[in-house]
Amino acid sequence: MENFIVSARKYRPDTFQTVVGQASITATLKNAIRNKQLAHAYLFCGPRGVGKTTCARIFAKTINCQNLTADTEPCNQCESCKAFNDNRSYNIHELDAASNNSVDDIRNLTDQVRIPPQIGHYSIYIIDEVHMLSQAAFNAFLKTLEEPPRHAIFILATTEKHKIIPTILSRCQIFDFNRIKISDISGHLGNVAKNESVQIEPEALNVIAQKADGAMRDALSIFDQIVSFSGKTITYKDVIGNLNVLDYDYYFRLVDQFLKNDIPGVLMLFNDVLNNGFDGHHFISGLSSHFRDIMVCKDPVTVQLLEVGGEIREKYKAQAAVCSSDFLLEALKIANECDLQYKASQNKRLLVELALIKISQLTLKKK
Q1: Contact 61, 16 (CB under 8 A)
Q2: Which residue in 306, 301, 290 sits closest to 339, CA to CA?
Q3: How does DSSP classify residue 133?
Q4: b/e map of 11-41 (b: 16 or more CB within 10 Å)?
Q5: CB-count exposure of residue 333 (10 Å: 0-12, 13-18, 19+)
Q6: How far is CA 191 from CA 7, 23, 184, 205, 333, in A?
Q7: How far apart are CA 162 and CA 139, in angstroms?
Q8: How far, in Å, CA of 166 to CA of 183, rounded?
Q9: What single string gives the DSSP state of each residue in 252-290?
């Protein structure tokens, strides 16, 4: 049986050009290599799954490449690149600070730092989850981080910058990684699907990208899960069914009923949502987001803030045309208040139903 490699590993970027959504950071790192202005310590921080460790590895590989391309990318032909690609490089050392967080581990590292590289000009030390180091380990690391040997470069990666002591931060060049945009994630997933001969609807890609919450690794893991569930043809219905996501269609129907003041229809639709296994809190927060999305469609300037595509975008525009700004503001206010009160409420269903009834009567008052 052929070994399956998860997409997050199979499609892990190996050049700066293939890194998604971090253009300013990759451009800065390439300029530093091109101009030979390398700092002795870097700190890569940001949310999970946005490319911190990946960029650290590409940076380390590119620094020691003996035949850089014209675009400052590794050649993958020289001995240093081949050693890195085969996981046998003695110049690039990775340490997981979550499991090596004691003073002794840092002392071993500082002893190792003195040894010059065998191939290339630099020894690179990538320390992942550096915020997990103990206070004593941080202090033991300070002197080495401030004045390492000329051949040593440290790249620290963390999801929690606020836990790192200021004396460490002041010795590093800090790069803040952004959450990856939904459009970038869905575009990359589209390329992965094409390479894997998977047919997937654009709306389905968009739902996966939204569920990933800005993390490419999470998006690729969800994609693998959906492929296991649906096979090589994936529809929007497959994705919302597998990920337990409320269909946009519920909210569009609900707003139509609000505008008609159809209270029985609204309550029956909410009952249908609950019967399908969805939580009331999840429903009301989704309704708030739906009102917000309709509101941004009211103006051509803000319509670009809408993070959906294709047919659904047109549906939002059509619904925005029939909803008044006053109605949307009041409805958003009621939905938001319900969201805030949900956890403290003893009768959660009644709280949501009351909010829905209030929203249903907004246009009635105006009439």
Answers
A1: no
A2: 290
A3: S
A4: bbbbbbeebbbbeebbeebbebbeeeeeebb
A5: middle
A6: 12, 18, 11, 11, 40
A7: 16
A8: 35
A9: HHHHHHHHTT-HHHHHHHHHHHHHTT--HHHHHHHHHHH
> 3-class SS at 356?
helix
Domains, the chain, in order of start with CATH, read 7-176 (3.40.50.300), 182-243 (1.10.8.60), 248-366 (1.20.272.10)
Contact partners, residue 333, CB within 8 Å, separation at least 6: none
Q: How many residues does the chain have?
A: 367
**pLDDT tens for each residue of the chain, 367 residues long:** 456 778 778 878 888 888 888 888 888 888 888 888 888 889 988 888 888 888 888 888 888 888 878 888 888 788 888 888 777 777 788 888 878 778 888 888 888 888 887 777 888 888 888 888 888 888 888 877 878 888 888 888 888 888 888 888 888 888 888 888 888 888 888 888 888 888 888 888 888 888 887 888 888 888 888 888 878 888 888 888 777 777 778 888 888 888 888 888 888 888 888 888 788 888 888 888 888 888 888 887 777 777 766 677 778 888 888 888 888 888 889 889 888 888 888 888 898 889 889 888 887 765 5
Instruction: Give the number of other CB atoms < 10 A from CB of residue 346.
Output: 6
What is the Rg, in whole angstroms, of the alpha carbon atoms belonging to the chain?
A: 26
**Which residue in this structure is represented by tokens 């997990």?**
132
> Which residues touch 259 (CB under 8 Å, ≥6 apart)?
322, 323, 327, 363
- Helix or strand run (H / E) with residue 42: strand 41-45
Which candidate, 12, 99, 15, places its Cα nearest to that of 62?
15
Residues 57 and 63: their CA atoms lie apart, in Å, by: 10
Residue with structure tokens 């994705």? 239
What single string gives the DSSP state of each residue in 151-175?
TEEEEEEES-GGGS-HHHHTTSEEE
231: left (phi over 0), alpha (psi -120 to 50) or beta: left
Which residue has 């309709």 as its token pair?
294
